[in-house]
UniProtKB/TrEMBL annotation:
Family: Belongs to the aldo/keto reductase family.
Lineage start: Bacteria, Bacillati, Bacillota, Bacilli, Bacillales
Organism: Paenibacillus protaetiae
Record-linked InterPro entries: AKR, AKR5G, Aldo/ket_reductase_CS, NAD(P)_OxRdtase_dom_sf, NADP_OxRdtase_dom
Residues involved in substrate binding: 116
SUPFAM superfamilies from the UniProt entry: NAD(P)-linked oxidoreductase
Site description Lowers pKa of active site Tyr, residues in chain: 83
Protein name: Aldo/keto reductase
Keywords, alphabetical: NADP, Oxidoreductase
Gene Ontology MF annotations: oxidoreductase activity, acting on the CH-OH group of donors, NAD or NADP as acceptor
Active site location: 54 (proton donor)
Length: 280
């Protein structure tokens, strides 16, 4: 059971990935983002998740450099993820996109590089590019994002390297049981984006009752639920108080009954696009 903010899961290739990280989706370039990342590292976070399409890799890189300088940590103490965008899915284009992300971030390597969306007819060429980056030792781990079971099966038919991570929308209204079971069987680590359903669950009465019992917030209960399900989680915030709150989930445990109660809130409801039906 995860007891500390720096506890890690071991990916299928032996790489250690922190259970909890900070996401930066919809956070603009600039000092607020730099300060948020410095605060996160100061308060114990070691994992940062960005993507090319977020258009904030430059500030993320600056935040990383300043956080390292301030903390005395080394680059290898942090776990940095980015993602290749749909327009760059293709063998050569994906290789070039990786270089471009590294340049914006000011880094020599990434810990994890993901295919952002399963664009039909394109993601398999992109996967070959990720395999090359991985075999060449340029990235520590590779994976996918927003892939359903059938997308994963399609990749695995020809893959030489199995995806190590699948980052998907996951929260109490979208518990993804079939996908979770499949990933577990395949040794693919599931990771949650939008764990708090973009704030839509923060007034939920059943969750409030559980939170009150533990003297915690609904956000903390949901993040704890993720972790107890063995799902890596990257809640987004640029407010230091919220960053601290999201990281303060290692001093309590949900009972099996509480876990089941939260599971029962599932409605297969998405706030993000449907991976089987998107047009971008």
């Amino acid at each position: 059971m995860t007891k500390h903010i720096q506890d890690t899961t071991v990916l299928s290739n032996g790489v250690q990935m922190p259970w909890l990280g900070i996401g930066v989706f919809q956070v603009e370039e600039g000092q607020d983002l730099v300060n948020a990342l410095k605060a996160a590292v100061r308060h114990g976070y070691r994992s940062i998740d960005t993507a090319a399409i977020y258009q904030n890799e430059t500030s993320v890189g600056q935040g990383i450099r300043e956080a390292l300088a301030e903390s005395g940590l080394k680059r290898e103490d942090l776990f940095i993820t980015s993602k290749v965008w749909n327009a760059d899915l293709g063998y050569e284009a994906t290789l070039a996109a990786y270089d471009a992300s590294l340049e914006r971030l000011g880094l020599d390597y990434l810990d994890l590089y993901l295919i952002h969306w399963p664009v039909q007819g394109k993601y398999k060429d992109a996967w070959r590019a990720l395999e090359k980056l991985y075999r060449d030792g340029r990235v520590k781990a590779i994976g996918v994002s927003n892939f359903q079971v059938h997308h994963l099966e399609d990749v695995l038919k020809d893959a030489e390297v199995k995806p190590m991570v699948n980052q998907v929308e996951f929260h109490p209204r979208l518990t993804q049981q079939q996908l979770r079971d499949y990933c577990k069987a395949q040794g693919i680590q599931l990771e949650a984006w939008s764990p708090l359903m973009q704030g839509q669950l923060l007034g939920q009465p059943e969750l409030q009752a559980i939170a009150d019992k533990h003297g915690k917030s609904i956000a903390q209960v949901i993040i704890r639920w993720d972790l107890q399900h063995g799902v890596v989680t990257i809640p987004k915030s640029i407010r230091e108080a919220r960053i601290i709150e999201n990281g303060s989930v290692f001093d309590f445990e949900l009972t099996p009954e509480e876990m089941a109660q939260i599971d029962s809130l599932n409605q297969d409801l998405r706030v993000g696009p449907d991976p089987d039906n998107f047009d971008f």
